[in-house]
Amino acid sequence: MNLISPIYIVAVSLGIAFFMGLLGNKAQRSSFLILIAALLFNTVVSVQWVYALATGLTDPTQIFTAGFKPPFSINLLMGLNESVITALINIVGVLGAFYMMKALKKNGTGSQVVFLVLFMSLNVVVLSRDLFNIFVFLEVGSIALAGLIILQKGTKAVSAGFKYMLATGIISGILLIGIIFIYRFTGSLNIDSIITNNPMLKQGAFVSAFLIIIAIVLELKSFPANGWGLDVYEASHPGIGAILSAASATATYFVLYKIVEIAGSQLNYYISLIGVVSFVGSNLLALKQENSKRLLGYSSIGQIGLLMIILGFKDILGENTTYVAFGILVSHYLAKAGLFWLSGIVKQKNIKDWAVTRKKPYFLFLMGTFIFALIGFPPFPSFFAKWTLVMDLVNSGNISWVVAILFGSMMEAVYMIRWFGYAIKGENENIESFKIDSYKIIPVGIVAIALYVAGYFVAPHSEVGTAINFIPLYFVAAIFILDFLPVFIKNTIAIIGMALYFYFVYPNLDTLRLIFEAIFMVGGILTLIAGYAYKGKRAGFYPVALLMYAGLTAIIEAQTTLQFFFGWEVMTAGSYFLIIRGKRSMPHGLSYMLFSIGGAYALLTGLGMAHAGQESFSMEILNGISYLPYWAYGLLIVGFLSKTAALGLHIWLPGAHGEAESDVSPMVSAILLKAGVFGIVLTLIGMGAANTQYSELAYALGWLGAITALAGNLMAVFQEDAKRLLAYSSIGQLGYIVLGMAMMTHLGWLGGFSYVINHFLYKAVLFLTIGAVVLRVGTHNMYQMGGLIKRMPLAFIAVMIGIIALSGVPPLSGFAGKWLFYNAILDKGWYFQGAIMFFSGGIAFMYLWRLIHTVFLGQLKDNHRNVKEISIWFLIPIYTLLAGIMVYSMKPQWVLQPLGNMIAKWFPEGQLQWVGETAISQYGHWAGSLVAITIIGSFLIVLIILMLSTRKAHKVKQFDITYSGERPERPETTHIAYNVFEGLYKAMWPATIPLVEAWWNKVTEILHNIADVTRRIYSGNGQVYVAHIVLFIIVSYLVIIGG
Amino acid sequence: MTIYAKLGYTLLGLLIVLNWGFLMGATFRKIGARVAGRYGIPFYQPWLNLLKNISTRTTITHGVMYYIGPVFRLTGGIGLFLFMPMVFTGTVDGPWTNFSFEGDLILILYFQVFGMLGMALGAGQGGHPYSAMGIARGLAQHAAVELPLTLAFISIAIQFDTFSVYKIVAAQQGGIENWVLFTNPFAAATIILAMLGAMGHSPFNLVKAPNEILIGPATEFEGTYLGFMQSAGSILHVMEAVLFMNLVFGGASNWIELIVKTFLIYFWSVFVGMVFPRFKIEQSVTWFFKVPLLLGFLAIIIYSF
Amino acid sequence: MIKNFFIIAILAGLAAIFVTLFWDFGDSETLTPLATHYATNGATEVGAPNLVTSIVVTYRGFDTLGEVTILFLVASIVSFFLKREKVQKEIAPKRETSEIILTAAKLLVPIVMLLGVYVFINGHLTPGGGFQGGAIIATAFVLLLMANPDFEINHKIIATVESVSGIAFVLIGVLGILLAGGFLDNKVLPLGTFGKIFSAGAIPLIYSFVGLKVGSELSNILSNLQGVQKEEM
Amino acid sequence: MEIIALITGFALILIGLYGILSKKNIIKIIVGFSLFDTGLHVLIVTVGYIKGGTAPILDSVVGTTNVASKIVDPVPQALVLTAIVIGLGVTALMLAYALKMYQAKKSLDISDFKDMKW
């Protein structure tokens, strides 16, 4: 096929530009249409090349100007990369022009001409193979930008523009020196001929190559010589910001990609070095940034830094380089354009004021899409790119680079998520809403959709991405589209969907996975049933809830580490949105997210190490990691512990679970935490279960578990907020589980698993019930409740059974765990850990008693005299779960025997013997059913006797109690409920100092202070920025060529 | 032996325990009175109390849980008895081993709580503020006592490599020198000290303080309820003593030995109670975290190597 | 003081980098292969005696296009950047321009213009070319402005000249693709006899357009700056 | 010969930079910038110099045979033309900026334009 030569991009653009000059300022409207037409033409040209080259219809093509072969004349090269890059640039050109319609029309044809010429020059810069020509058109571009900056009125824009001109002027001067001297030393200006026949023999040649490359690096606004860039981002029209970071940066980056070869591969390492400094530095400094556009500027610079790292590592990444680079590039390109454009619509400088976004809910969706794409969450391209990058870097042993990169991404996540948090939850009463012009919102929508599409198409091209199962995500998308329907319908759809999915999935799961899948799916369905209690639309709830479950099931089904990590991140995102729905849960959502991301990065590195040893991505590689195994397993465990909220990584949990909605708390507590447990189990199995040579790791893990159990329970005792109490109790319970698993013995695991199941059952019951009660009485504080047994007996029974089961008092199921643990610790010899955990068991009684006494017994408050029983929709799941507890208590062997058989696969020694219904361990025996029968029997006998003997008992009034002659009038004074464990507190207060929280606060504070001090180098004075640039050159010269 | 014989023996045993509990209780109240220079009650007072309470006509109720309280408590006592091998006769399914084949030391440990739970629930339903206080204190103290006790139990379990109370008793037969008291002095010492808290006499009876001045649960529950609770109380006292006897003092090979040993064990706690004034909760908690805890650690350390 | 010292230090550092370039510079007796090619084949390939011109207009014509674009850009940026919202009414009293300048202007402007035209028409034969010619033409306007500060250049005409010549330049380039070897190839017209005015293909044409364009652009920029300055007074 | 030219070029560049870095007045900074540019142009021309070469115009003096040995390198001269024009454009735009800045704050002191920082 014959294609339109890219030279026409230049010819047409310039022709039209000159023609527009003819039109004069009167005819902005028509000229604007012409502008759009021209940009569209460019897009068409580059897109057809993309198509032709991608489908192999043509080979990369050279375009010769003046009819002479290079190096005698300037030539352009249109290869696949070039075509894609130009396509990206031109697309953003069209959308950007559309977005800036008003500004461009207002400033007349002149501005439109500039706009058109800018994009023409960017195209040439990408295509041209002649150094000097690149220089010329870089100049064209930067002058055009300098012109566009001042479309924004005001001094800020003007001074920013001047700084920009000054800086770029110096930089291009340096570039010119480099070019002219490289001509001197190599006798050519054509990149290809320089690369081919000049292997940088002369020192001078190398220096001039260095000057060229460093100049381009500076054009990319490398940290810290980038104050001018930041000012431009802040001051100029948001549309220009988008062009700068999406189009201009992309083009310049590609120039770097082209010319880096002229210095051979000697500079690659240093480019990565500059890149990592840029990435970490600007993301760190952004922590203190409050101006949204400047924040985006920081982030853009960081992203470019990341791209430079990739460029520097292209020898290591090999054929993955393009994939990784484009993955990051495209995500950044679309997301940044989107965010800049959004900032133009929202019109709020301070990121706190972005809370106004909430007044147009679908804006949250857009913003969320962009931010999660930037941080690198699935299903966006950046996720797969980052995954591949880390895998290859670890594989080549560049651990420290991985650490640096992940640290940088972490910082980026901090400020981005915080920003998003402000948008979702911030105060927005006294900010007036914003109006939306369709011509502005359409481009935003397009890039948002493009992100998803890109992700969908990029995924299969990663090494094992093809295997990713998108079906649950389709379902989520469907629910998202149906979000306008009332709760009842959506809930039903969701439940049916999950049930069907479970039905189809469970046959091909082994026992271990089946247990967890059942907890996730069945538990999910039960907790969803409670959702029927809610009225109205409950906008946005179902998509995110299902997103979480999609992630959870993906973790279970994962065949490859990529699938696992994919699911892990999806689950994290979903749960974050779930948690942050709570009224006061903004800070907790943030800390949850940060710990999750930190954990996820630990996982990522661990998985990378696992991959490094064995050149495979199957989940099997977890068994027998060969490359840095201690670190690998350690990182994996830490990653999973961040989800199980082990002591030290737990501070997010109480708030997150405590403030979440009533039916969300059980989801995130009873169900979500098990994901971490599942991960730990996989890791421990990987560590070679019974005959592990990593016993130190397991030992440390065990102690961590024990201490977590103690701390969690102790903190729970002193809570006044019912849901926080349960949340802390979850921390403790997970501590037990971790300890049990860490023992790495049959009994230990049996105990651990029985706890996994138990905790799911009773914590779901308790959270559902308390949540429902809270919905009725409208407070979390227990001391404001009391005597509720009279109003909601069913809830009371549920809680009573729940706490008996939790406390491990026979005959209910909790005792199984305790008994197994006693045997396990004796078997393992971890006596002290055991003692600690049983002590925490004793402490558990205290908060459990509070839960039932303070809430349900004692004196009924006046304002609760006629609250109703908790909603039927909560009672249904609650009593279903109670039935489960009862069955487990009556017939423990039904649960424990299969578990035992499963565990025997990894721990054949020291199993339980089952004689009839009696479990016999090496140390003791326990006949669960018989015990249950005996106790319940005698209980009934006594009860009946008592009932008979007190048939004629007459009911007395609430205050009819012997009270030293007085008759109390007010329930508040007669219901001792506040700070009841004062005595214990006096004895144990040192153990309750929130050291961990203090430590984390200190860390954040230090980071922020560093950021605040460092960023003062951006003094705002143009001369200082020039000085930065020159210094940057000198320093890199010293580093690279070494004085 | 047949299940019926088993049941018969068990019921008989329960009867003995109940009455011995009453007698012992009365005796110690008498001792207490004499120490304080009063005349004190006749030894048959508890039986009178029981009769009176059961035969009172007027009874009240504060609601369902109000029943459950005493029931839980009594069940707790009976259950504890059921799972405890009382008298060592050389065979596991001997006449006085009750239903100990159903569970071991751990079952007993956790079942103790059953009674407390009942007390807590019932008192709570009673709606009296002080009962809440009493229970809160009780739980706190219980937790503090549990820690050293648990350590001691674990140590004994390590020593005999079993959790079965019966086996532990069996291992201590054949001479006083085999008693844990001598074979595992640290564990024994720990238990002997921690036991004071478990028995709940002065100085560790702040739990009962609210109903010392005559209000709180003891007066909320009258009539049959109180009767049940008193019976439960006396059973529990005996069983506590029996537990420690079995674990530390070589168990009992016949009822006489059991009665003598339990009496002495019980006497020890009462004796201390006579001498020492009452602790505040924070005091008692910290006290248990000092000496007994230390001993408990030693008891384990010597076995963990 | 410290600031100055710091600056000196920085410059010293930069100088150090230049030194390495300086040492390796050496001095060259022979042309680079690239230049040699131009020198030997320039005459036959392009047919312009002035090799610089043949490089500027043909071999590296693409650069020249960019170059022209830059001037064009600056002109249009300045025009909408310094757009005069409303000229203040009160105009400060101005000193009369001296007789000498007035007469000189009257006398010289046409000649200067002529010189400019000559320079860019002969760009392919003699030193000089479109840019130089254009610059000379612009100086004529400077002279006019100095003589008569109130002198208003007719923007309409200038803009037209500017655009038309620009479009023409591009069109010739495109013709190059259609009729000859590639974009901006000068062989759209016959090379003619070496050294004559009408030779070297399209070069004289292109250079004339460039000259007009540059001239008009420069004067455009000048008038804009000067216009703003008038407000300032 | 070219040594001097080289030194001049580098010196001009450094002097220009010194002006840009040290002067507070924006106009002076722009002047410094054009010095910087001029230095560059001098360098470019110098690079093209060949010992004993003459102007690259094939007139009667040079003739059309073995030109290569007679003339100086024409390429840098072509480049310098472009460079000069670009410099001119940049300077013009900078001056326009200067005007605007002066209109905005009635001041030409660059340190008065620090309203964006950090």
Q: What does the model show?
A:
- The complex is a heterotetramer of chains A (1043), B (305), C (233) and D (118).
- Chain A has 1043 residues and is mostly helical.
- Helix content of chain A is 71%, strand content 2%.
- In chain A, helix 6 packs antiparallel against helix 7, helix 20 (471-481) packs antiparallel against helix 23 and helix 27 (652-659) runs antiparallel to helix 28 (664-686).
- Chain B is mainly α and 305 residues long.
- Chain B has 13 helices and one strand.
- The termini of chain B are far apart.
- Chain C has 233 residues and is an all-alpha fold.
- Helix content of chain C is 69%, strand content 0%.
- Chain C has eight helices and no strands.
- The mean pLDDT of chain C is 83.
- Chains in contact: A-B, A-C, A-D, C-D.
- At the A-B interface, helix 32, helix 33, helix 34, strand 6 and helix 37 of A face strand 1, helix 3, helix 4, helix 5 and helix 10 of B.
Which spans of chain B of ≥5 residues are poorly predicted at pLDDT below 50?
A: none
Which structural class do you get from the secondary structure elements of chain B? mainly alpha
Distance between the termini of chain D: 48 Å
Mean pLDDT of chain B: 87
Domain count of chain B: the total is 1
Number of helices of chain B: 13
Radius of gyration of chain D: 20 Å
The greatest interface here is:
A-B, 79 and 85 residues
Task: Report Rg of chain B.
Answer: 19 Å
